[in-house]
Amino acid sequence: MVYGIFTTELQWKTAVLGVVTYFAFGFGITGGYHRLWSHKSWSATAPVRLIVLIFGAAALQGSARWWCRNHRAHHKFTDTTKDPYNVRKGFFYAHFGWMMFKQNPQEVGRANIDDLEADPMIMWQHKYYPLIAITAGIVIPTLIAGFGWGDFRGGYFYASLVRIFFIHHCTFFVNSLAHYLGDQSYSDYHTAFDSVITALLTLGEGYHNFHHEFPRDYRNGIKWFHYDPTKWIIVGLYYLGLAYDLKFTTKNEILKAKLQVKQSHLSAQSKKIEHGKKLDQNLKGYTLEMVADKKKNPYLIAINKKVYDINEFLDLHPGGREIIIKYCGTDATDVFEGETEDHIHTDFAKGLLVRYLVGKLI
Fold first, then answer.
1. 83 and 73 Cβ atoms separated by less than 8 Å
2. What are the b/e assignments for 115-147, b being 16+ CB within 10 Å?
3. Beta-strand pair 306-309/357-361
4. Is the pLDDT confidence value at 274 over 90?
5. Dist CA 13 CA 11 (whole Å)
6. What pTM did the predictor assign?
7. Across the beta sheet with 357-361, what order do the strands follow?
8. Are 343 and 335 contacting, i.e. CB atoms less than 8 angstroms apart?
9. pLDDT tens-digit profile of 215-227?
10. Do residues 314 and 344 lie in contact, with contact meaning Cβ atoms separated by under 8 Å?
11. Could you give all domains of the chain from N- to C-terminal order, each with its CATH number?
């Protein structure tokens, strides 16, 4: 390939052919191998399935049966030793290293592919994969450029080999970069991330955190502005009557997942904050008479069976020290909890009390 680049002039028609086949054969992987057969997130008519199978083979990434088995195992055993391209073994292992070493049959995870083995079209492609892959992925592009505008060399080196190189690495980024870079808005239990950069490099497969949380969704980028050409092609086929049964996640489930992640992060941050003493600690017991004894402590106040020493808070009280002083020595629960023009206490104000907790009412 490198030799061809330096010895062959790139013609614009050949460049266009390379780009067109990049998107077409790339869709064979992202829309076909991945979303159609690995996750069953949409269905297609027989002619479309046949074309997508040929396109997927032309990407030279193995048969659909082999590819889907590994990918299903990846989702089933993500980030574990049974994950075929476990990113915890390193970026380059997840990118292509896993293909350079023979998988240990005792270690690699297994995934059910009975549905694929019962599909005559899938098994036909698996049986004749080498012939289909070489013919569709290399021979035909070379002949198109050669007989079309006399550029056999360009068709072979640019529209075939260079295009194969780019499709390979763009797909491999889903296993590597998508597990390294971006945000985790829907789940932080695995290494998958959402990233615009990864999406641009992978025909829209970069919103990977969403995908790992909702793998049955035919979309990867759920917003209209998300770069996901695979989704757009599937929708286009749907409107043409060539695709059907598009599965998607409801807005409620998406919102639920996002809120759970936010709550998890808030809980983690909350544990790092000093909230003050708790009632389950050995707090001193006070009677209401002890609270009212201003000779021993003139700034005790009882609220909801808890006793507070508000001496340090007097000058910080938003309503002025005079208002709060008149309730010292008393049970001010009704005043504190009530909402009048003079007394409105927010959740922050209630939380602030914990700093001044000294005992409990007995």
1. yes
2. ebeebeebeebbeebeebbeebbbbbbbebbbe
3. antiparallel
4. no
5. 6
6. 0.76
7. 284-286, 357-361, 306-309, 300-303
8. yes
9. 999 999 999 999 9
10. no
11. 2-262 (no CATH), 284-361 (3.10.120.10)
Q: Are 235 and 211 in contact (CB under 8 A)?
A: no
pLDDT in tens, 232-273: 999 999 999 999 999 999 999 999 999 999 888 887 777 666
Distances in Å between the Cα of 205 and the Cα atoms of 48, 78, 84, 200, 246 are: 21, 17, 19, 8, 17
Alpha-carbon distances of 354 from 75, 304, 351, rounded to whole Å: 45, 12, 6
pLDDT, tens only, 145-195: 999 999 999 999 999 999 999 999 999 999 999 999 999 999 988 899 999
What region, left, alpha or beta, does residue 357 occupy, with left being phi > 0 and alpha being psi -120 to 50 degrees?
beta
Say yes or no to pLDDT of 198 above 70. Answer: yes
pLDDT tier for residue 281 given thresholds of 50, 70 and 90: low
- Residue with token string 């409107």: 239
Q: Tell me which residue has tokens 């969403």.
A: 210
The pair phi, psi for residue 195, each rounded to 5°, is: -150, 130
Q: Is 170 exposed, middle or buried (0-12, 13-18, 19+ CB in 10 A)?
A: buried
Question: Please, is 212 exposed, middle or buried when counting C-beta atoms within 10 Å of its C-beta (0-12, 13-18, 19+)?
Answer: buried
Which CB contacts under 8 angstroms, 24+ apart, belong to 146-151?
148/13, 149/11, 149/13, 149/14, 151/11, 151/13, 151/14
Which tokens in the block code for residue 100?
A: 């350079």
The two tokens of residue 267 are: 């809980």
